[in-house]
């Protein structure tokens, strides 16, 4: 169980995460300490200073990741595979932690805590009738007991389930980190992550997240089209899309997807916008006679316009965002950013996480370090207005102690 006291102190914390690309484990070491406003009453987001000590990507074995991608994509699966994948990932996350500690010139005894998100296998955020029981669920693998046993460092993991247990979507969790990192400037801003899926946190001038949700796909569909047409993993700086022409009629049709009109809070992922969805769009593009460049251009516009429409439909009436802080791999796609500014309903200033000294590559690792840190001290760290939860709770489960 987590500590009941609310007095924060400086800790050295590792954040671990494997994202939708599954290219490896993002591992980063942070020194986290409270500011003068850091010991609140549990209702407000505490002030926390973050210092990045060391970071790196610890790659999976190529054979392992190929097998795992088939599992996550919905390929052949049995309970033996799920069981052993959970512990095998635990070994991989433990090795990532030990690797990053060694690379940083530290020892495990100098690390106070590990926050591990693991690898998402499946996410069912909406209430579902299952065998006569109304339930919802999420499954992240990477056994925390294995991480603790190999490192001898306390581990907090399984962050989404507590929020879902009190009616939330279990996502987006990043809105907590966005409040900590961007909420003290006195400026309303949108914090936009352009990963496989796009999600946005709207923060008002008082530094509070007022809304956060997944807007839809970001790079996931674009990357799949680049692979199908050009045998490339992604569209570097939007160079492929710039050579194409946006098919406005097709764009309007694919924007009719029902998810885009659903009221927040809402989350999505591979379950809706994964490979089968992308492959259907690619088949449709070919049937329409579109070139590869035209397809990638239209799908890039699809991402940009779905984000801008989400702002216009759901956020603008609550808080006007004249500033967006972008992160994730899509932040490096200048064509995507140009289209986002074009489709935004008014002039908007676009900044990057790096403008604030934050590595977008390791922001999710920082998120899980922050969640582990606050949960360790019993500070609630979900944001119900963003996830839809009925109350604030501490996210994650603690394994091990020193």
Give the name of the CATH superfamily of the largest domain: ATPase, nucleotide binding domain
Briefly note the CATH topology name of the largest domain: Nucleotidyltransferase, domain 5
Given helix and strand content, the structural type is alpha/beta
Task: Note the main sheet.
Answer: 7 strands, mixed
Order of helices and strands: EEEHHEEHEHHEEEHHHHHHEHEHHE
Strand content: 15-25%
Overall average pLDDT: 92
Secondary structure tally: strands: 12
The CATH architecture of the largest domain comes to: 2-Layer Sandwich
Percentage of residues in helical conformation:
25-40%
Whole-angstrom Rg:
21 Å
Tags for this model:
Nucleotidyltransferase, domain 5; alpha/beta; 402 residues; five-stranded mixed beta sheet
Fold and architecture overview:
The protein is an alpha/beta fold and 402 residues long. Helices cover 38% and strands 24% of the residues.
In short:
This protein is α/β, with parallel strands linked by helices. Helix content is 38%, strand content 24%. Helix 2 (79-103) runs parallel beside helix 3, helix 6 packs antiparallel against helix 11 and helix 8 (248-254) crosses helix 11 (292-315).
Write the layout of secondary structure elements.
Elements: E1 11-18, E2 24-34, E3 48-59, H1 62-72, H2 79-103, E4 113-130, E5 133-141, H3 144-151, E6 155-157, H4 160-165, H5 174-182, E7 189-194, E8 197-203, E9 209-217, H6 219-230, H7 239-242, H8 248-254, H9 270-273, H10 275-287, H11 292-315, E10 323-327, H12 334-343, E11 349-352, H13 363-376, H14 384-387, E12 397-399
Helix pairs in contact: 2-3, 6-10, 6-11, 8-11, 11-12
């Amino acid at each position: 169980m987590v500590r009941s006291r609310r007095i924060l102190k400086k800790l050295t914390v590792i954040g671990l995460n494997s994202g939708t690309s599954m290219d490896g484990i993002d591992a980063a070491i942070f020194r986290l300490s409270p500011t003068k406003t850091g010991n609140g009453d549990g209702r407000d987001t505490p002030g926390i200073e973050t210092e990045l000590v060391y970071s790196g990507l610890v790659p999976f074995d190529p054979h392992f990741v190929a097998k795992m991608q088939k599992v996550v994509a919905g390929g052949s699966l049995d309970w033996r595979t799920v069981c052993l994948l959970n512990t095998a990932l635990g070994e991989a996350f433990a090795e990532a932690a030990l690797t990053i500690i060694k690379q940083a010139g530290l020892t495990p005894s100098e690390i106070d805590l590990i926050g591990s998100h693991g690898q998402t296998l499946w996410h069912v955020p909406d209430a579902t009738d299952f065998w006569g029981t109304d339930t919802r669920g999420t499954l992240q693998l990477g056994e925390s007991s294995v991480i603790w046993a190999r490192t001898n460092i306390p581990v907090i993991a399984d962050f989404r389930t507590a929020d879902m247990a009190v009616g939330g979507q279990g996502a987006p969790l990043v809105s907590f980190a966005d409040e900590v990192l961007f909420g003290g400037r006195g400026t309303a801003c949108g914090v936009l992550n352009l990963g496989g899926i796009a999600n946005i946190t709207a923060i008002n001038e008082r530094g509070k997240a007022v809304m956060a949700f997944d807007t839809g796909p970001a790079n996931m569909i674009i990357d799949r089209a680049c692979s199908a047409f050009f045998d490339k993993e992604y569209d570097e700086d939007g160079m492929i899309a710039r050579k194409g022409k946006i098919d406005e009629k097709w764009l309007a049709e694919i924007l009719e997807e029902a998810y885009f009109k659903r009221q927040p809070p809402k989350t999505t992922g591979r379950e809706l916008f994964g490979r089968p969805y992308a492959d259907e769009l690619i088949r449709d593009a070919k049937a329409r006679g579109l070139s590869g460049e035209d397809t990638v251009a239209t799908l890039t516009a699809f991402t940009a316009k779905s984000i801008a429409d989400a702002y216009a439909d759901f956020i603008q009436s609550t808080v006007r965002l004249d500033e967006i802080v972008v992160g994730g791999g899509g932040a490096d796609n200048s064509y995507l950013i140009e289209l986002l500014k074009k489709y935004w309903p008014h002039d908007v200033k676009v900044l990057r996480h790096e403008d604030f000294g934050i590595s977008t590559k390791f922001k999710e690792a920082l998120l899980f370090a922050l969640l582990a840190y606050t949960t360790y001290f019993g500070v609630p760290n979900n944001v119900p207005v963003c996830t839809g939860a009925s109350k604030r709770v501490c996210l994650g489960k603690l394994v091990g102690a020193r």
